[in-house]
Amino acid sequence: MPTLTEWAYPLAESLLAEPLPRRWKHCLGVAERARTIALILDQDADLLEAAAVLHDIGYAPDLAKTGFHPLDGARYLRDVADADERVVNLVAHHSCSWLEADARGLRAELDGEFPRESEHLNDALCYCDMNTTPDGTPTNPVDRINEITGRYGPDSLIGKFIRRAEPEILACTCRVLERVAAAKRQPM
């Protein structure tokens, strides 16, 4: 039986690598960030890495139905790929997606179909996503938020959503970094 990551990487690659190579690089970078915080995830390290590499599959042209990539990706994973429920839920709610769902009028659908995973895991996935550039290299959440705002425009739906989400994104990053620091202080 393959691990979640052994299953997730080829699926994400098949959906993103050819039509959206930059998005694929981003997903690989987000998964790499997940590996860097594995020490705070215990048995959920594989789960988080799988969700990280899959988090943006909803952008794939064949999957984009609503135009809201967390919902489109989660529905595909649930309905077509028969994915692990926890991976599906992490993809659905990654990086404060509920705030974007509010702006799109899709919050009831998102919350009704997909329960949130623990704050610990949601924080971790948000941290990984918001500390990775579109090209997959490390960054920090302030620069990432500025990059997103610049790419979409400050008055766009995405620009407004990301600014609204900024305090929570920064708080997620702080909570993850605090957990990493505490784990590193623990004796072996």
TrEMBL record:
Q: Which organism is it from?
A: Streptomyces daghestanicus
UniProt xrefs under SUPFAM superfamilies: HD-domain/PDEase-like
Family matches, as InterPro entries: HD/PDEase_dom, HD_domain, HDIG_dom
What SMART domains does this protein's entry cite? HDc
- Ranges of residues in domain HD/PDEase: 19-98
From the Swiss-Prot or TrEMBL record, give the protein name.
Metal-dependent phosphohydrolase, HD subdomain protein
A Pfam family (short name) is: HD
